[in-house]
Specification:
Elements: E1 2-7, H1 11-21, E2 30-35, H2 38-47, E3 52-56, H3 60-63, E4 67-69, E5 75-77, E6 83-87, E7 96-99, H4 105-113, E8 119-122, H5 128-134, E9 139-142, H6 146-149, E10 155-160, H7 161-169, E11 173-181, H8 186-205, H9 211-217, H10 223-233, H11 236-239, H12 242-254
Parallel strand pairs: 1-2, 1-3, 7-8, 7-9
Antiparallel strand pairs: 3-11, 4-11, 5-11, 6-9, 6-10
């Protein structure tokens, strides 16, 4: 069966989906794969475009009538939250912030913990650090590879939004989810869910097999950055949310 699959080009997604996309495990799905920035992924599911997609957890309440949440494939954990950064030495109040999308979990946490921010601008995640460094805005929220390399720039940490979440809830932070159209039916949904879980387990068992595929799509190509990214965002919750993972998702969605 042919299915459209939209994921991000980031190492955690390409690592987790490698075996599934590149035929390292057996299946009979014909996948039409597209790679998009997280806010583009969110906008795509709001339109109902893809059969299966990565999304920000914050947008799931808006699409849950049409899409089901998969147990596998999530980016969720501890110590992996978004970072609010500003230019080094700045002391003025933070009023304008650039974020990787208005529908992202990053923006939801920014609004949760920094309600005094007056304006949030949307920008491609890979361009945020440079924009903050230029002084275009007071601060920016970094995700993906950006959180590992911001110290190379004239930037400093204001707050780790993930740590604020963990301190408040004592739960892992739900970042990204994989969802699938409910109209495809429970049998197919369950089949794909199990297959994705198998793909993640294959990636863990064969960590270097996917490296060329991951590098083909990554923004930062250094091996150490890629390894840090994968180790931080792909974990046991990616295989299965489990009871704690589902509790964390419910807490984020309900506030």
């Amino acid at each position: 069966m042919k299915l459209s699959l939209h994921i991000s080009p980031c190492p955690n997604d390409t690592f987790a989906f490698d075996a599934l996309i590149n035929g390292r495990i057996d299946h009979d799905f014909d996948l039409a794969v597209e790679y998009h920035d997280i806010e583009e992924l969110n906008e795509g599911v709001l339109r109902g475009d893809p059969d299966i997609s990565k999304i920000s957890y914050a947008v799931y309440p808006l699409v849950k009538e049409r899409y089901a949440l998969l147990d596998s494939g999530s980016a969720l954990g501890r110590g992996n939250g978004q970072l609010l950064v500003r230019r080094k030495g700045e002391t003025a109040p933070i009023r304008t912030v650039v974020a990787p999308g208005l529908n992202t979990t990053a923006n939801a946490l920014l609004r949760r913990y920094f309600p005094e921010v007056e304006e949030v601008q949307q920008m491609l995640f890979s361009e945020i650090a440079e924009s903050v460094e230029r002084g275009d805005v007071d601060a920016g929220v970094l995700i993906h590879e950006g959180r590992f390399v911001y110290e190379r720039r004239n930037l400093e940490l204001v707050a780790d939004l993930g740590k604020l979440w963990e301190s408040e809830t004592n739960l892992p932070l739900p970042l990204g989810a994989i969802i699938i159209k409910r109209e495809l039916g429970e049998e197919l949904i369950s089949k794909f869910d199990k297959l994705l879980s198998k793909s993640v387990r294959y990636a863990f068992a064969n960590p270097l097999v996917s490296r060329d595929f991951v590098k083909e799509h990554a923004q930062e190509l250094e091996d150490d950055v890629i390894e840090k990214h994968i180790s931080l965002f792909v974990n046991d919750y990616t295989i299965s949310l489990g009871e704690e993972g589902r509790k964390a998702v419910e807490k984020l969605i309900k506030g």
